[in-house]
Amino acid sequence: MDAKTAARERFESAREDLIALSHRIHAHPELGFEEERASAWLCESLADAGFAVEKGICDLPTAFLARAGSGPLHIGICAEYDCLPGIGHACGHNIIAASAAGAALAAAKVADEIGLTVTVIGTPAEEVGNASGKILLLERGAFAGIHAAMMVHPAPFDMVAAKIIAASMFEVHYTGKESHASAFPELGVNAADALTVAQTSIGLLRQHIRSTDRIHGIVTNGGAAPNVVPAHTSARYIIRSETLDQLTELRPKVHRCFQAGALATGATLELRGGDKPYAEMRHDAEMAAFYQRNSEALGRTFPPMGEWETRPTGSTDMGNVSRAVPSIHPMIGINSLPAVNHQPEFTAHCVTEDADRALADGALAMAWTAIDLATNEAARSRLMARA
Ligand SMILES: [Zn+2]
Ligand SMILES: [Zn+2]
């Protein structure tokens, strides 16, 4: 039996358990860095399948490594499992987690005979936007010795190399002074006005930024009562650009808008975070080609991308991984349109039959890609030469 058939048989024997795992994670959504149950369930399934599991690596209680095989080529498969506040698994990270486990189980079946080590890297908190799981794990050495990394991410339709851009999340805090809003307004310093000026400035700034830049945010504290001049307001903003270099140009322009709010009102401004941004994704062309062929062999299709060739999608800390090791981050379709990521309707789609099929196809396409990388002499030597 060839390696891909053996891997497929191994996956099929675990298919129902993996679908149950995906549904269980979906039914118990946990926010970034709080994914205690999801990471425990993943570690348990992988340990039961014979993987050597290390939980709570790199001082991150919900991160883990699960390794199988002992070959010289070392492939990492990233599992994400955090949800979004209020709308649960609206990004389908339950599918990412279960497909990563499935890919690793399937590849592990043949790892030793094809000279492969496969490690699932449990990467918490993808949705937080700054200093996220993969960024901290990279800094703390969790990816050391890994020659290539991959994951699949649910989306309305398949895209092997979506345009994934750089991003940075930061918090904005204004401090003014309370006062009676009617009797003594002249004694107050209005921190909510500071935020209003900043938002107006950002609106005007939009004429003078690249069409691929993004600036979006929410007010997290707008004041306590209409008859008290707000002394404390806060917001959370994300800025994005095609590349980290362009993001470096955008950042001071946006910061100046927040400074304008402080200047106009006399409130003081504090900006927190934004120090560990997400990098743009560099898709490894050879790995992407293997993945696409393997997906097509499973019956998936990759129609011409049209506007998506150039239109930015989201951002991910897999971009940071892709700067350290050759990586892919294909989007795997769950046939959800008109529902799209980060909508409650998408949450509902992440446990449908199409979602379960995406889990299975994503797992097998990744396992087969790992097999291709291990057995194709040119690919193998290219990856091994880098370490
Ligand atoms: Zn998301
Ligand atoms: Zn996501």
Mind explaining what this structure looks like?
- The protein is an alpha/beta fold and 387 residues long.
- Helix content is 42%, strand content 18%.
- It has 11 helices and 12 strands.
- It has helices spanning 3-27, 36-48, 93-114, 133-139, 191-205, 244-265, 285-297, 318-324, 344-349, 353-375, 377-386, and strands at 52-55, 64-68, 73-79, 116-122, 148-150, 153-155, 166-175, 214-221, 232-241, 268-273, 327-328, 331-333.
- The strands form 3 sheets. A 6-stranded mixed β-sheet has the order 1-2-4-3-5-11, with helices on both faces.
- Strand 3, helix 3 and strand 4 form a beta-alpha-beta unit.
- The longest helix has 25 residues, at 3-27.
- The chain is elongated and about 85 Å long.
- Major sheet: size, sense and barrel closure? 6 strands, mixed
Mean pLDDT over the residues: 97
Q: Give the amount of beta strand, in percent.
A: 15-25%
Q: What is the distance, rounded to the nearest whole angstrom, between the alpha carbons of the first and last residues?
A: 31 Å
Give me the strand/helix succession: HHEEEHEHEEEHEEHEHHEEHHH
Topology, number of strands:
12
Helicity range: 40-55%
Structural class computed from helices and strand pairing: alpha/beta
Widest sheet: strand ordering: 1-2-4-3-5-11
What best-fitting shape do the alpha-carbon axes yield? elongated
- Ranges with pLDDT <50 over ≥5 residues? none
**Which molecules are bound in this entry?**
zinc ion
